[in-house]
Amino acid sequence: DWRRSLDECAAEFEAFVLRATHFLQTQRGSHEPIRFDVVAHSMGGLVLRYFLRYGGQLLPYDEKPPRLTWAGAAHVEKAVIVGTPNAGSLKMVDRLVEGIPGNALHPTYGPVLVGTFPSGYQLLPRGRHNPCEAGNAPVDLLDPDFWLARDWGLTASWLDTERARQLPGVDSPTERLAIAEDQLRKCLRGASLFQQAMDGPVENPPPHLEYHLFAGQGQKTPRRFGGKRGDRAVSFTDFAQGDGTVLATSARMLESDGHSPIPWHTVTALKSSHMDMLKDPKLLLAILELLATDRRARI
Question: pTM for the complete prediction?
Answer without folding.
Answer: 0.94
